[in-house]
Model the fold of this input.
Amino acid sequence: MPWSSIDEVLFAAHLQVTLAAVETAMEQQQLDTLVIQAGDSRFAFQDDQACPFRVNPWFAWLVPAPPAPGSLIELRGGQSPKLLFVVPNDYWHSPPAPPAGAWTGHFEIQVFPTAAAAIAALQCTAGATAWIGESAPPQASWQVNPEQLLAELVQARCHKTGYELACLREATHVGVLGHLAAEQAFRNGASEFDIHLAFLAAIRQNESELPYPAIVALNEHCATLHYQLRDTRPPRRPLSLLIDAGASCRGYGSDITRSCAMIPGVFAALIDGMHNLQQELCEAVAPGIDWRQLHLRAHRLVAQLLRDAGVLRLSAEAAVATGASSVFLPHGLGHLLGLQVHDVGGFAARAGAPPIPRPEGHPALRLTRCLEAGMVVTVEPGLYFIDSLLQGLRAGPQADAVNWTLVETLRPCGGIRIEDNVLVTAAGHENLTRTAFADAS
Ligand SMILES: [Mn+2]
Done:
């Protein structure tokens, strides 16, 4: 996406905040130099085929350059940041374009033909040096991915800057275009494969650019939480679609899920009910909210929905207390979102604090903290008819509390998930996804 003058202003402010956080953390850890590696190309075993390159998120946090394996950021107290950018002399592939655009003015930039040449040009020959990267550092004496330093920086990454929010808004806007196209393809009877292609065509991004592999499921496949296959042929009777897919913007990703039913009925009514309770949960997002409590509230709301639909005869409280709600909702309410789709910082309230444990019986929750302004979270309640989990329920003491005939009629529809990306603001929240859907229609 081309840079606007607003982006330039936002990025300058973003870099000021992030570099200040890095400098403070370096002082605390008495570091003279910090080197951040973009990452290495990885190859399949005994093969010359490279795996899709994913940039080190710490690198992308500071530098919005195109992906360039082997590139380095060198940070030294009191000096302007250096970018050592690797552009190989490659005629088999298109090399990364050398850095361009207004953001480059904030860095001292040098371009090298190899990663080794970039490493040889590092200034840090003396003093305490730390390295953030997946491969071994060039010098054995350097600290590698120091835990305390990263713990400090993780806290900074949890609170999004204006620039990061602009990227997340754009990623959401683009992702929503994909979701609208996907629903249209589903209504036209397309296969999972073709719905996926419709999503990609609408967002104008390659599959390797997506923030995470898109989940495109029809019918009973909607019961597989991270369903990864894409049938090229449509089912005989398309009943339901679950699409969990996002788009990228400068390394930031959206994470959006929508469910649709082909025809009215009990399953379609469950989707409507899920939208309502999902909105209720989004409305509750505000600073100070304990995410564990909101997660448990989601369980009670889903249990109540199942009770209202006639699937469960237990009270909502009993369904949560006995674990019956977890049979239908075996994942967490949501997670932090940013440069990584399951972003860092979900468990410790501050650097050095112990991780806050998940509520007992909820092992999949990826966020246990109280919400703070500037965080972006996903709110993604769901309910599913998962054979292996239903078998356990059927064999257990709550078996009589389930309308198994109704479960049998809903099982071919698989499941439901509705997921929005929500910014925590000082006053409460802003639902980025609902805003983007409203703007697009
Ligand atoms: Mn998610």
